Amino acid sequence: MDSGLYAAYTGLLSRTQALDTAANNLANTATGGFRAEKDYFRGVMVDNLGGTEGDSQVGGTVNSYGVLGGSALDFSQGATTATGNPLDLALEGDGFFAIQTQRGVRYTREGSFTRSATGTLQTPAGEPVLDALQQPIIIPTGDVNVSANGTVSVATPAGSNIVGTVGVFSFADKRALQADGTNRFSVPAGTLPIAGTAMVRQGAIEGSNQDAVQGTMQMVLTQRQAELMQKALTVFYTEFDKTAAEELGKV
């Protein structure tokens, strides 16, 4: 069988899967703290056979063409926007905030926080933001100041007091982080965080690291590539059917 059919098939498969990734990235260009996904590739026959390339007679030919192996999170910095809200926090550098959800601790770069009626620093959904010991942070009434290392102090008529430190966490192997929604991440049980090196910027929030223009261009390009591979696959099928009909008539 013509190896061109394999090339068309693997090309269509990889472009179709990449189209889903591009669409999700584009849909979240305005999502605070969103981290885009990037595609990586592998060889199809080796993976399907569970062995080495020598296990397949056509493995060497097929693996000249890449198929999508999956997607990996892009942890590059997103643009920060000043808001003037003293409880809005942005991270600049390597690190994540930790929040306590009903499903356990989740990590995020989205720092639009509020103060609850009881003084707890929380997300808009009412989930506590955790300190370096992964405990909730209680902020009394007063003027809040958050330093670059995450130290939270509150100025009151009686003076200024340090009330806690916003936890900034990272991981030795970021491949352990798994997307949990649009801008949150989870890690497998037993995976311990390490101290992040990011600086905390008060009165600002970090946006998505996916640019809308670049995302649109990538989606259009991927869609056109998928259409070309689909046409190529159709041509190969048509030629094979024609050849089979001609040869069968000679038997």
Description of the molecule:
It is built from 4 helices and 17 strands. With 251 residues, it is of the alpha+beta class. Strands 5-6-14-13 form a 4-stranded antiparallel β-sheet, with no helix packed on it. Strands 9-10-11 form a 3-stranded antiparallel β-sheet, with no helix packed on it. The radius of gyration is 25 Å and the shape is elongated. The relative contact order is 0.20.
Précis, in short:
By secondary structure, this protein is an alpha+beta fold. It is built from 4 helices and 17 strands. The protein has a 4-stranded antiparallel β-sheet with strand order 5-6-14-13, with no helix packed on it.
Core attributes:
4-stranded antiparallel sheet, 251 residues, single chain, elongated, 2 domains, alpha+beta, 3-stranded antiparallel sheet
